[in-house]
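Help needed: design a sequence for this.
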């Protein structure tokens, strides 16, 4: 705790002190203002919307070098996680520009937030990634602490630990152990790095050696035509050979210039390209070159039209060095003759170049050792040796050719680290998420033991009975036997009815609009209502007039056509319209919502009075009386096809073979699915239906809203879901699948002390709510949490009353994930074909 306090204090002081420097750099450096804004957590909304709350794969790399290692990783992650958005974060401006240049598979690229406690908490809570992947050794204490609190797994990829880092990390003591403890898997570059990370506290069973992903980078090749163009652009036409010094640091340029002078004395037409590691040192390096007696120009000047032809060109741009290496005959890698640790030699090696390095390559010790053991790199210890070896290589074409062959061979032999890392990530996530689901289920089961028996009625008794819960003995077998007989009879009747419709013995009615049916083959909640909301908004956004046709289950209104909303004003309350229809109308102020037993009648009314072009049948899969253009079957990934039996022995409304008529299979709540459940749904659906689209969705919690605020305005603002983490609550529900609601709360870190479950569609009265509030006070919980479907049925007097314990509504929205883009493309095409044929033609 003391170490973390000191760390945070130091971080805040440092940021405060360097603010004037930030302001100065903002006036001088292109893009620095955007870097500062994002580092303080102010991200472009369109960027953050691509990844926030969407189970993103978050890869973090500090600078240009790490981005080079990240590029092949992101390519592999895209292959194994095609439907998960990928977020890449960086620290430096150079890394940001390089990421945009070479990482094409990322959905969003941002600057990493400063590791201040309040910033880290805000950003991680806002994005809530599926996994966080620091590249090499990018470990930030506050960020990792918040990731752990939000149950976000961390995996180190392309891990590298330098000798200097091992010594420095030891000073962090307890905080280091805490950081290491948040990492679930360590994919290290070499056995040396693996040994170092274990010495720092990583458990041996979590450490794997994968190799260096930089070997997998698709380094830019330079064709003969591109080489000629680049030489002309750099003003190097007429050069006999080219020497390149890449990523040089202060104190090295003088040594390079001395070696270059020696070569020029033998071969006057040799030219030199210097690429200082810090572009801001360009003027300093220019001065050194002129002081040594050479003519010099910069890449930026040449791009502006300078004539060229100087002895030396300074590469003062970012992201070009990898390509420029292709021009060199002898390459010196900077940072290696001073105690900096060297730089990546794989970029010039990928071009097949003769490479010289200093003996201070401790940051790349494994790669250096690999090349040195193959005699594929020349290592020097001082400036005098650098001059000698440079002269030797320029004078020995055969030796240069041998080195070029060896470097290329090493590159080709060591590829594959990125694929290994991707597979480790797949396995790690599968194990971790299965354990997380099990923990959530255990939390739910533990509070169920203390749950009230308020719902001990026939409905819950029946559900428990058919799912083999708490009913034993002869009576159970007798009841289930009777149920099974009735199930067989029910199945034959359902098959007969469907056959009559298919053969045309019973006529279906048609509407002069596009009809979409949403439904399921099981009783209980699958998420039809929020899915209908999501679909209606999307279609309305495409420019079509849409209406929702609901049967009005448990509505007090009686008649052929009931107008819950005319698309402008609510015409009924929840008691009159039924909870589902009222909630749809409340959420969709621009969409008419109608109730009635015959959808053909309500549909014609919607067309005649509201000009509806699209009708959505909420819970219409079994409403065979009406022709539809698209049948969408919803399958709950938490409660897959019930127990496999038809009513009343099970919860199936019709045989599974009837899913053959679905155009789309939408799996709901896939983030809560047990291991193997999604695959089971895929296989079951495909066994009966070879052509239908399959897509996945999640119910994404947005916020918690006070019941009184929600009652007045369904779009009212609330508190972020992260603020309920750790709070003790009473969960209140009267829905078809209360376990899913409770698991959602558990996944958010909410501690459910007790759940009170009422029958599905139960209308609360004041006596019910008095009992709920009394129970909450007795238990000493901090809040009562319920669903939107329950909120519409709470009496107004209760909503307006001031209670000591707040009542919150969890606001949830449906998000389509895997297959979503293909579905909406298909939907748009079909809508246009039927409703706007002139647009297509």
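Sure. Designed sequence:
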């Amino acid at each position: 705790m003391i170490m973390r306090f000191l760390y945070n204090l130091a971080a805040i002081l440092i940021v405060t002190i360097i603010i004037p420097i930030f302001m100065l750099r903002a006036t001088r450096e292109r893009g620095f203002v955007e870097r500062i804004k994002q580092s303080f957590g102010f991200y472009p909304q369109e960027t953050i919307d691509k990844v926030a709350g969407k189970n993103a794969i978050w890869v973090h790399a500090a600078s240009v070098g790490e981005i080079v290692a990240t590029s092949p990783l992101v390519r592999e992650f895209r292959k194994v996680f095609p439907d998960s958005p990928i977020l890449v974060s960086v620290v430096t401006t150079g890394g940001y520009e390089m990421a945009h240049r070479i990482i094409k598979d990322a959905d969003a690229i941002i600057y990493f937030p400063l590791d201040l406690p309040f910033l880290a908490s805000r950003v991680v809570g806002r994005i809530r990634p599926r996994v966080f992947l620091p590249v090499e050794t990018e470990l930030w204490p506050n960020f990792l602490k918040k990731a752990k609190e939000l149950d976000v797994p961390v995996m180190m990829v392309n891990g590298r630990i330098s000798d200097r880092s091992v010594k420095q990390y030891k000073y962090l003591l307890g905080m280091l152990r805490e950081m290491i403890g948040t990492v679930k898997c360590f994919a290290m570059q070499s056995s040396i790095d693996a040994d170092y990370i274990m010495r720092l506290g990583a458990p041996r069973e979590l450490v794997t050696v994968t190799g260096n992903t930089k070997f997998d980078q698709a380094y830019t090749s330079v064709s003969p035509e591109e080489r000629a163009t680049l030489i002309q652009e750099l003003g190097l036409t007429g050069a006999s050979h080219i020497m390149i010094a890449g990523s040089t640091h202060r104190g090295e340029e003088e040594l390079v210039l001395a070696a270059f002078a020696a070569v020029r004395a033998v071969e006057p037409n040799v030219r030199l390209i210097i690429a200082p590691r810090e572009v801001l040192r360009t003027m300093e390096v220019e001065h050194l070159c002129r002081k040594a007696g050479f003519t010099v120009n910069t890449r930026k000047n040449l791009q502006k039209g300078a004539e060229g032809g100087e002895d030396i060109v300074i590469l003062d741009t970012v992201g070009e060095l990898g390509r420029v290496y292709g021009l060199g005959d002898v390459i010196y890698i900077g940072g290696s003759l001073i105690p900096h640790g060297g730089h990546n030699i794989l970029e010039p090696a990928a071009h097949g170049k003769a490479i010289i390095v200093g003996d201070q390559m401790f940051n790349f010790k494994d790669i250096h050792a690999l090349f040195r053991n193959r005699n594929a790199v020349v290592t020097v210890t001082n400036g005098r040796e650098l001059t000698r070896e440079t002269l030797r290589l320029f004078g020995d074409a055969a030796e240069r050719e041998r080195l070029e062959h060896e470097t290329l061979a090493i590159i080709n032999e060591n590829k594959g680290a990125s694929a290994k890392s991707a597979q480790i990530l797949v396995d790690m996530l599968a194990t971790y998420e299965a354990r997380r689901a099990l923990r959530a289920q255990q939390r739910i089961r533990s509070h169920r033991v203390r749950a009230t028996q308020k719902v001990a009625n026939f409905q819950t008794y029946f559900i428990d009975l058919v799912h083999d819960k708490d009913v034993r003995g002869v009576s159970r077998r007798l009841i289930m036997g009777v149920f099974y007989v009735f199930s067989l009879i029910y199945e034959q009747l359902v098959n007969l009815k469907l056959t009559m419709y298919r053969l045309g013995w019973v006529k279906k009615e048609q509407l002069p609009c596009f009809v979409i049916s949403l439904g399921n083959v099981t009783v209980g909640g699958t998420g039809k209502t929020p899915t209908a909301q999501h679909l209606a908004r999307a279609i309305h956004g495409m420019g079509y007039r849409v209406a929702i046709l609901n049967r009005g289950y448990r509505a007090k209104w009686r008649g052929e056509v009931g107008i819950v909303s005319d698309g402008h004003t609510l015409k009924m309350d929840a008691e009159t319209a039924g909870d589902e229809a009222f909630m749809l109308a409340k959420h969709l102020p621009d969409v008419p919502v109608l109730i009635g037993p015959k959808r053909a009648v309500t549909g014609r009314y919607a067309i005649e009075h509201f000009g509806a072009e699209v009708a959505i049948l909420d819970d219409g899969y079994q409403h065979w009386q009406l022709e539809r253009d698209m049948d969408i079957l919803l399958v709950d990934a938490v409660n897959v096809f019930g127990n496999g039996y038809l009513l009343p022995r099970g919860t199936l409304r019709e045989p599974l073979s009837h899913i053959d008529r679905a155009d789309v299979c939408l799996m709901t709540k896939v983030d809560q699915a047990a291991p193997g459940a999604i695959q089971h749904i895929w296989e079951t659906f495909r066994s009966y239906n070879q052509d239908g689209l399959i897509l996945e969705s999640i119910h994404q919690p947005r916020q918690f809203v006070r019941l009184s605020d929600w009652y007045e305005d369904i779009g009212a603002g609330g508190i972020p879901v992260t603020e309920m983490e750790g709070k003790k609550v009473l969960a209140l529900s009267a829905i078809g699948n209360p376990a899913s609601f409770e698991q959602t709360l558990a996944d958010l870190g909410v501690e459910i002390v007790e759940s009170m479950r009422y029958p599905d569609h139960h209308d609360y009265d004041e006596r019910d709510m008095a009992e709920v509030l009394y129970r909450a006070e007795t238990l000493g919980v901090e809040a009562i949490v319920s669903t939107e479907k329950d909120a519409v049925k709470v009496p107004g007097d209760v909503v307006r009353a001031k209670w000591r314990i707040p009542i919150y509504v969890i606001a949830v929205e449906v998000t389509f994930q895997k297959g979503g883009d293909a579905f909406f493309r298909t939907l748009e095409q079909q809508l246009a074909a039927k409703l706007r044929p002139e647009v297509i033609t």
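The two ends are 69 Å apart (CA to CA).
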